[in-house]
Design goal:
The chain is α+β, with helices and mostly antiparallel strands. It is built from 2 helices and 5 strands. The protein has a 5-stranded mixed sheet. The radius of gyration is 14 Å and the shape is globular.
Length: 96
């Protein structure tokens, strides 16, 4: 049996805020932010249960701190296992 991948979607407000952040950031941050967003999409599409920990005591919501960037980046996401959809609901970024 083949394991079906998940579809990753981003909340519309988060997409808009991310685009604004990217436009206003220096090139080095843009590059890392783009790499982080790509990593989020790839990992959550293939194995969302392999990252993160439960968030706010909800069985379908998780928080994931991404390592390896010059800033702190945390993604909050929901997993709908029945529909095979992962929704990224928030990103938190902070300088280290």
């Amino acid at each position: 049996m083949t394991r079906r991948a998940y579809t990753v979607v981003w909340e519309q407000d988060l997409q808009d805020d991310s685009a604004d952040f990217w436009i206003e950031s220096p090139q080095e941050i843009r590059n890392q932010f783009s790499r982080a967003c790509d990593e989020i999409d790839i990992v959550l599409a293939t194995a969302p249960d392999s990252v993160g920990r439960p968030w706010q005591g909800l069985s379908d919501q998780f928080i994931w701190s991404l390592p390896g960037y010059s800033f702190s980046i945390v993604a909050i996401f929901q997993i709908n296992r029945d529909d095979r959809i992962v929704k990224v609901t928030r990103l938190h970024l902070a300088e280290l």
